[in-house]
Amino acid sequence: MKSRKIIPCWGAAALLLSVGCGSQTDEKISLKEALKDKFYIGTALSVAQFTGVDTLSERVARENFSAIVPENCMKSMFLQPAEGKFFFDEADKFVAWGEANGMWITGHCLVWHSQAPEWLCTDGSGKNVSPEALTERLRSHITAVVSRYRGRIKGWDVVNEAILEDGSWRKSKFYEILGEEFIPLAFRLAHEADPDAELYYNDYSMAFEGKRSAVVRLVKTLRERGLRIDAVGMQGHIGMDYPAIEEFEKSLLAFAEAGVKVMVTELDLTVLPSPNPNVGAAVETTFEYRQSLNPYAGGLPDSVATAWTGRMSDFFRIFLKHQDKISRVTLWGVCDGDSWRNGWPVPGRTDYALLFDRQGKAKPAVGEIIRLAGQ
Ligand code: XIL
User: Fold this and answer.
1) Model pTM greater than 0.70?
2) Is 78 a pocket residue for ligand 1 (Cβ < 6 Å)?
3) What distance in angstroms lies between residue 8's CA and the mean position of ligand 1's atoms?
4) Does 90 participate in catalysis according to the annotation?
5) In this structure, which residue's CA is closest to atom 3 in ligand 1?
6) Which of 63, 197, 221, 319 is 20 to 30 A from 359 (CA-CA)?
7) What is the pLDDT of residues 231-254, one digit of tens each?
């Protein structure tokens, strides 16, 4: 006689749950469900993902993440490509998508030396504008952008990457023209435009001792001056051998000790060899393609995939250990194929930096994180 398979009640429920999470994950509970009492788990979205072009990543984002940040469309060169000519179409769609899908929405980023339009800091002949002119331009940009999404965007990366690894100020145009005062200015303007929005300072290479101390000093200075700063964003563009996890943890604790929340804002873990031992995330630093720098174009060996899972899980173990200090952990992209790491710092490589593979399937790290979260 053919035996009939009986699915007990709990088995049927689990089956339903796993089907409900979508076919791309074998887990019985989604990532965002597993982490919902810990911190937001976010992803950066590209325009294709919230405009119905990339429906695969759109679905993975919707089903697995609880927070979103725009990968590019809210950077100043896109929002105000020419002085006074704002372009909000994509940013509006991004926010609408987030609201329709119940996401915690963060804006990225108000003041950043990169992906900023030429006109912002210079005049027609390419010379730096006066401090008064730059102050006025920052005022009009920040006010227009933040007030447009008042009450809808819950937090802003106000200033991005103003400090170097050794703790010195980055000599950006903002710094050249206004000195370090451009930072409190930006925080004040953002707060005036939306008094309820959370405000963040965001940067990479945060595990460096010099940068850690300088960011702590910055947080304290802003607070002493009565300015709002809610959190420090640690970008988290990490590799298999950098940074030392203990140093990352030290920075996380130092920022929390300074009186703000910590967010991991741009997490991705590259498996690829670094062409430069001085690894940061300076988007302007790029290297020529060489085949030897692209070892996994045909697929990732199991041993490397396992090491990747282990390292990603180690980081999440630290995040969960300090969950009282962390408000959000955001991956910089949805699926491996979407990641900027395929193109930076060397163009044309094949990387495996995110939690979902190129087919939108959850990698083993997702299951590990869910288990670490106690589910
Ligand atoms: C990156 C985007 O992912 C790319 O698509 C773009 O070409 C360059 O910028 N630090 C940041 C992010 O704060 O805005 C950067 O995003 C990655 C480094």
Assistant:
1) yes
2) no
3) 48
4) no
5) 340
6) 319
7) 999 999 999 999 999 999 999 999
